[in-house]
Amino acid sequence: MCGIVAYIGSREAYPIILKGLQRLEYRGYDSAGVALLDKELAVYKKMGKVAELESSLIGTNLHAQSGIGHTRWATHGEPSDRNAHPHRSSSGKLAMVHNGIIENFAPIKKELLQKGYEFESDTDTEVLLHFIDDIYQNDANNLEEAVRIALKRIVGAYVIILLDQDNPDTLIAARKGSPLVIGIGKNEHFLASDASPIIEYTKEVVYINDYEMAIVKPDELILKNPGNERITPFITKLDMELAAIEKGGYEHFMLKEIFEQPTAVFDCLRGRLDAKKGTITMGGIDQHLDLLREAKRIIIVGCGTSWHAGLLAEYVLEELCRIPVEVEYASEFRYRNPVINPGDVIIAVSQSGETADTLVALENAKNKGAFIFGVVNVVGSSIARLSQAGAYTHAGPEIGVASTKAFTAQLTVLYMIAIKLGYSKGTLSKERYQHLINELAMVPDKIQDALNEAASIENLAKKHQDARDFLFLGRGYNFPIALEGALKLKEISYIHAEGYPAAEMKHGPIALVEESLPVVFVATRDIYHEKLVSNAREIKARKGQVLAVITENDDLFEEIADDTISVPAADELIAPLISVVPLQLLAYYTGLAKGLDVDKPRNLAKSVTVE
Ligand code: AGP
């Protein structure tokens, strides 16, 4: 969940590491730090955002050609200077950064305390560093061996990178569970949690796998497996441009990514959906069409917004393919010992492809014989590499912590899967198949139309910015969108918000309705429309404020609701791809009106790589 960067080569390390930390700050922003090695090892760290570290170092001699850096999402030990990374060994000669959680740090700490070690912080990371240093001082011939011995005792997830004052030309790195990418330059190497800090220097990268160790020198990258055997690094070429990870003139990444959705959905459809030919071509599906067609059950696994995409896909897959579908929170699915039978297909939905709960849930299911199909945005990520087949969402890098364009791209992929599978199974007629293909092809333009309502949505956000609570209601395909709208508002504005199937209101939540409560209806025209109108009347009868996302020219809801946001008409099955956009904007503008950091909301991180 933290962001890690390192550099070794002939350039000044500090500016490269600092910019890398700024690019990775969406992974955690509780504290930041760097360790630089010139003649001596120097460690600088500060509570708060990377900008605070940067300003605290103005005027300091930061010359060095190797260094490590860290931006933190606190797990063990509250955000503070002393709990910030890098940590330093008691010998003072080692510095280490870590992303992950050491689950068995307490017994190891006890042993080290008995040996007289003292701890400056409350972190699990410092325990691992002293443990490595203890083995280095007493039992190992070199740091690499000490790290290998130590990690054999470790339970948990980690990427660690160590800097050693006695070996200034070598970085030692190791990975299990958390992501690590190494960029290959000319007589230099870049190490990072993902490719965004590396892209401006090189497009040649190596994704490090679990239990692998890297010994990195300016002109050499040695990879070793757990058996201490050398393995040949598999070099991948990044197909990402620097502009994709810049704000491009927008005030926030979140707003940029919301407005990128017409392009993101178009890129997701491109080369796959051909409305003229009436075809959907998806390599990952085509190669396994028989298996998917005969699937006894589909289990969709994900977290947060990705789980909401899965929930909507449940409705669509059952409707079009007549295959039983279950949607699972990965964190529950990984521990509840689920029944998995041969013929079961697991669809894993993840933007980052690194979410720990989803990753481990898939590993467990794979070990039980399930077929894993990944729907992932980040190319080369762990979930993508673990899946037996998959489809990338091609939404481009998503930097804002709140997922927006990745969500609509996930839905686009899941819709294409359902339409293609339904037609090939014969559970979807040729006419409906062609109709849905045409509808999907029109989505980018309809999203653009919805984005044109941004100004009026900003006014609504300002009107309700002081609300203490919000309710989001929807039925059928719009229920998962109500959940997503509530999640976006919570994440970005810190207003308590809940999403419900509208008919559930009468079974309790309607007790919350009072004059000050905004109730958002996701009310695009569908078979539930009349029923939703009655639900809205029930809210109005109790003086609640009704704000509705409606299909344009819906006079009935215009008459009932206090405020409406119109979106273009679309097939009821496709409409959620469009009706979510006003809810993303509502959350964004509410956070903006409240003066909050919409790209880095408190307590959150973009990719949850720890349990
Ligand atoms: C959504 O805005 C959040 N960032 C969060 O709920 C996210 O969807 C969840 O952590 C899953 O992440 P993933 O898609 O990268 O696996």
Q: How would you describe the overall organization of this protein?
A:
- The chain has 611 residues and is an alpha/beta fold.
- It is 36% helix and 23% strand.
- It is built from 21 helices and 27 strands.
- The strands form five sheets. Strands 3-2-4-1-10-9-11-15 form an eight-stranded antiparallel sheet, with helices on one face.
- Helix 7 (261-269) packs antiparallel against helix 16 (443-451).
- The site of 2-deoxy-2-amino glucitol-6-phosphate (AGP) has 15 residues, from helix 10.
- The site of 2-deoxy-2-amino glucitol-6-phosphate has 15 residues, from helix 10.
Task: Characterize this entry briefly.
This protein has 611 residues and is α/β, with parallel strands linked by helices. Helices cover 36% and strands 23% of the residues.
User: What level of helicity do the residues show?
Assistant: 25-40%
The pLDDT mean sits at 96
How many strand elements? Answer: 27
Number of helices: 21
> What spatial form do the alpha-carbon principal axes imply?
globular
Radius of gyration: 25 Å
Sheet of most strands: 8 strands, antiparallel
Low-confidence stretches: none
Strand order of the largest sheet: 3-2-4-1-10-9-11-15
| Strand percentage | 15-25%
Distance linking N and C termini: 10 Å
Present as ligands are: 2-deoxy-2-amino glucitol-6-phosphate
Structural class: alpha/beta
